[in-house]
Amino acid sequence: MSQPPEYRYRFWLPLALIAALGLFAWQATGAEEHGEHDEHAEGSLHEIMEELGGHFKSLRKSVGDAGNNDQTLATVHEMQALMHAAKVLTPHSIEDKGAAEQLKYRKVSAQSLRVMCDIEIALLAGDQDAAKAGVKELNNLQRAGHNQYKK
Ligand code: HEM
Question: Could you tell me if 7 and 50 lie in one domain?
Fold first, then answer.
């Protein structure tokens, strides 16, 4: 015996609504996990930069000290990982400026990462002078990056 149409709606409509809400919540969580939520990404950039600052201080102190090479290498390795994460995030200062600005920011960040690799290569070769020159270059890139992108 079949039910009148309004009974069928009473059963299926709430179920369809719950399914739609569940799908929406699931998609929103996925977007945040992938860094698509702006606040999440920008908060991270500040934290990453703060940490980078601490490591750069120790790098400046230890570079040139051959006896401390292993520690200096470990510091540079940490800095590379931080810059690797920072370069795909969006600074507050350019969040409304579109894709071209984002790519310019990424370019300066990638240049910094390259200099960090140059410093690593110099340290692995035991060339303290080349490592010191790299630190100077990194300092210039930091200054340029902050002039352009730090509010
Ligand atoms: C060795 C290189 C770098 C170090 C040690 C460093 C360190 C720091 C530190 C300590 C801060 C926080 C400062 C504060 O809040 O007063 C900061 C912020 C920032 N840095 Fe760097 N930085 C470096 C390179 C760069 C580069 C190359 C760029 C750009 C391409 C950049 C972009 C920024 C931006 C956009 C902020 C502001 C982040 C925010 O608060 O949301 N930094 N950085």
Answer: no
Mean pLDDT, rounded, of the chain: 86
> What element of type H or E holds 115?
helix 99-124
Task: Domain count for the chain, please give it.
Answer: 2
Residue whose CB lies within 8 A of the most ligand 1 atoms, among 146, 147, 149, 151, for a mutation test: 146
Ligand 1 centre distance from Cα of residue 52 (Å): 8
Same domain, 45 and 111: yes
Mean pLDDT of 24-50: 60
Pocket test for ligand 1, best of 49, 56, 116, 141 (most atoms within 8 A of CB): 49
Identify the domain containing residue 43 by its residue range.
Answer: 37-149
On whether the CB atoms of residues 106 and 77 are closer than 8 A, the answer is: no
